[in-house]
Design a protein that fits this description.
- The protein has about 450 residues and is α/β, with parallel strands linked by helices.
- The chain contains 15 helices and twelve strands.
- It has a four-stranded antiparallel β-sheet with strand order 4-5-6-7. It has a three-stranded antiparallel β-sheet with strand order 1-2-3, with no helix packed on it.
- Helix 2 (about 115-120) runs parallel beside helix 15, helix 5 (about 180-195) crosses helix 14 (about 390-420) and helix 6 (about 210-220) crosses helix 9.
- About 40% of the residues are buried.
- Bound molecules: tryptophan.
- Tryptophan binds near residues 259 and 274.
Length: about 450
């Protein structure tokens, strides 16, 4: 944690080699030391395995490393973690946090288990690598929760490798207030976790924690035509809405492609507005593979089917706070917003007029999503609306209560997280390390395939 500048390197073979080499010279330090256990012939050095000795509880057959990738790394008695520190070159106890081991002696952080496992398994087709990002433009709203985060959590629970990041570089295309960018990045991380993403299961990180992505975007930009970028709807929107467009805006989809292709994502869940950008990433992967040899995985697009309308029927958006329900809103705020701004069936004049739920702009469509699994409860609303026995105001207040029931636990967790900023920073730090290690491997392939030599 204290050594953010140290580039983590994962090379289990190298660690194992040094472990074997130094085994006989091992000095007792905190936690662990190791001796050499001989199995089979003494001359056959490849069959040697390392016997680890816990200096805390003085067991000398605490665990045996047969291969450097063996997961056996705890003392059976005191359960303390053991590792061989490639930095201070001693066997020590280590503390594990979010799948990262920190050497207790020199405090160096190492990316281990999860990343190594990922690197070994990423060619296995059974496991999806899910990746998605959110720009740090404000607090998250109900639309993002129901349309995206809920799905992110499902992926996470199904044991995929999930990478969810906060696109702070992309935020710079529209926001040049440094305080806002940094605070919003943390706020989105807090919102993510308050809504249920689990940093022990998913890699949660800031886009900028992986500088390799920027280099990858540079490489990809060499094979991306400028005309095609200018034709993308997301880029066209910018041109339409402002006289000048920055290079950052034009490069936006290429950077997004680097976000996706760097970890070799297999599935990218996005909202419909982002689909052309993910298509561009797919085209880039394909083009690169044909031109420079097989390097990237062409990801599938996980298009969001759930759309939550804002009060006037437009898409709920964090940039239009007056038209969205923030995940931090309280019951009073939600009720107030819906009663004041929520448009329902405009053809209905008085409370006792029969209404038509299908013409309801902002209330019934949300009920439809919330009561997806409760068709009977949904039918009650439909029937009461159709028969004119339910007024729009009552309906809005009932919706507000239902939304509040859903998001109240998030709100509470969010308040706790806001008071634990250091903890959230730590999650982003470790998440960034893991993501970085993953992208670094791809970048090495890209460099080599393009002829860029590391001198
Ligand atoms: N452009 C996306 C948005 O505004 C955020 C984003 C950046 C993203 N990089 C990504 C989404 C990669 C998916 C994959 O919503």
């Amino acid at each position: 944690m204290n050594n953010k500048n140290i580039t983590p390197t994962v090379n289990p073979d190298e660690i194992f080699r040094i472990m074997q080499e130094d085994a006989s010279k091992a000095t007792i330090q905190t936690g662990w030391t190791q001796g050499v256990a001989r199995s089979g012939s003494e001359k056959d050095s490849s069959s040697r395995s390392l016997k680890l000795h816990c200096t805390k509880c003085n067991i000398d057959t605490a665990g045996i490393y047969k291969r450097a990738t063996d997961t056996e790394r705890r003392c059976p008695r005191c359960d303390s973690l053991l590792m061989y520190c490639p930095a201070c070159r001693h066997a020590v106890s280590a503390t594990e946090k979010f799948s990262i081991l920190s050497c207790d002696r020199c405090l160096t952080d190492y990316v281990t288990n999860m990343t190594v496992e990922y690197l070994a398994s990423r060619d296995r087709s059974s496991r999806e690598i899910i990746l998605s990002g959110i720009r740090a433009t404000g607090t998250l709203h109900l639309g993002i929760y129901l349309g995206a985060i809920r799905q992110f959590i499902e992926y996470e629970l199904r044991d995929n490798l999930c990478m969810y990041f906060i696109a702070d570089w992309h935020t710079l295309t529209t926001c040049h207030d440094p305080r806002k960018v940094s605070l919003n990045t943390l706020a989105v991380a807090m919102d993510y976790m308050a809504a249920g993403l689990n940093p022990e299961r998913s890699i949660i990180y800031a886009q900028s924690s992986v500088p390799e992505t920027a280099e990858l975007a540079l490489c990809l930009s060499m094979i991306q035509s400028k005309n095609k970028l200018e034709d993308l709807p997301t880029v066209k929107d910018v041109v339409r809405n402002s006289e000048t467009m920055s290079m950052g805006h034009l490069q936006y989809p290429v950077l997004m492609a680097a976000d996706i292709l760097g970890p070799k994502a297999t599935l990218v869940p996005v909202g419909s507005d982002q689909i052309p950008n993910v298509e561009l990433a797919r085209d880039l992967a394909d083009k690169f593979n044909r031109q420079f040899g097989q390097t990237f995985t062409v990801p599938r697009i996980g298009s969001r089917t759930i759309k939550i309308p804002g009060f006037k029927g437009e898409k709920m958006s964090e940039s239009r706070t007056e038209s969205s329900i923030s995940l931090q809103d309280r019951l009073e705020d939600i009720s107030d917003k819906y009663t004041r701004f929520g448009i329902t069936d405009t053809g209905r004049r008085t409370r006792n007029d029969p209404g038509n739920p299908n013409n309801c702009v902002s209330v019934y469509p949300v009920f439809k999503v919330l009561r997806e699994d409760k068709p009977d409860a949904l039918r009650v609303i439909e029937n009461e609306c159709l028969s004119g026995t339910r007024g729009c105001k009552e309906c809005k207040l009932e919706l507000a209560r239902e939304i509040d029931d859903l998001i109240a636990p998030f709100r509470e967790r969010r308040i706790k997280l806001a008071n634990q900023q250091k903890y959230v920073e730590e999650i982003l730090h470790y998440g960034g390390m893991k993501a970085r290690e993953i992208v670094r491997c791809t970048l090495e392939e890209v460099r080599e395939n393009m002829g860029i030599v590391s001198f």
